[in-house]
Amino acid sequence: MTVRVRVGLAACLWALLVLCVPFASRGADVYEIDAILPQTGSGAFLGKTQSAALGVLQDVINKKGGIGGRPVKFVVLDDQSNPQTAVQLTNGILAKKPSVMFGSVLVALCNAEAPLAKDGPVIYCFSPGIHPPAGSFMFTAGPSTTDTLAASVRYLRGRGWTKIALITSTDATGQDADQNFATIFALPENKGEQIVAHEHFNTTDLGVEAQMAHIKASGAQAIIMWSTGTPLGTLLRGAVEAALNLPVLASPGNITYAQMKQYVNILPKEIYFPGSAAYALEQLPDGAEKRAVRTYLDAFSAAGIRPDQGHLFTWDPVLMLVDALNKLGTDAPPARIKDYINGYRGTGVFGQYDFHAVPQRGIGLNSVIVVRWDPAKDTWVGVSRSGGAPLR
User: Fold this and answer.
1) Mean pLDDT across the stretch 202-226?
2) Which of 106, 140, 195, 362 has the greatest count of CB atoms below 10 A from its CB?
3) Three-class DSSP labels, 255-283
4) Domain ranges within the chain, ordered by starting residue
5) DSSP character for 221?
6) If you ran DSSP here, which 8-state letter would residue 379 be given?
7) The pTM is what?
8) 145-274+369-382: in CATH 3.40.50.2000
9) Is the dihedral of CA 108, 111, 115, 117 positive or negative?
10) Domain 31-144+286-367 superfamily per CATH
């Protein structure tokens, strides 16, 4: 072969490579999805676990081919646990005209974001405490506070605790709880239950001495402490200082190993949470939900992570939206993705989803299992059936 021929062949091969590279790289373009989550501030304990969950999901999804053959990358933006910051970040994301986004995790933050997405994109909030209007572009993870509180009161009633004290925060989380408590305690099935004290506190308060004194004098048999994150520590410390040795039921946002470790010296002997079957795998019959929970647990185990509530609330929403994008295409408009989720009937770690029956959420009361923190096992254990009735 002459030098001229060899040079000509080399030039042709180079030209082919140059032509092929754009197509190859185009197929490997990363598909980014934004997630607004608190990495600092009072909600960081949840936001950081959800960031970790997105990392695990990113690996799981990419090992299965990503989205439309493209690797996915979740881009986490810190809202600093501040509604104003969440709004600013959401506006920045909307300027890029995405089809989907995730976050945030606290009630006030998701409520601040919701009006900005009246025409899309699809926003999946990780807080169960919000109640998006049916047909809107915002969806929310986990059973509603209405259902978690209903299951909680059912559990307390089943244990024979009829004199209940409540202490709720004055923020959006506490206001939502107050409305639901009024409805739930008025139900005929709870006519034997009595609220003997209902106290309030600010999430920035350093102490709750007066509130705990009122609860102690009320003759309560159990206390519902409904606040998420750092404020729960204030309540637990206040109960210890007041020598209130009563069973405590706290909101599900506090089902985190970090908090149980942080509050180890102030935890009551009995502390319960409205949780899910993800903490009570042995209670599940063989079937789709048990397989979904095993897959979830195995994925985090492979990553060296013990999953808790922040991880749990992230799992199903991400997989649902990724499923929608894979089936509809990454250029699908928000309205088509919204319609897809509304028609979704798959099974996840919270059970069978039906968005027709439960708009914007897909799951209800039967997804709630009350769990108790077991210090000896260093984890939570199921103490109720689905819906809150105590195990016998």
Assistant:
1) 96
2) 106
3) CCHHHHHHCCCCCCCCEEEEECHHHCHHH
4) 31-144+286-367, 145-274+369-382
5) S
6) E
7) 0.84
8) no
9) positive
10) Response regulator (3.40.50.2300)
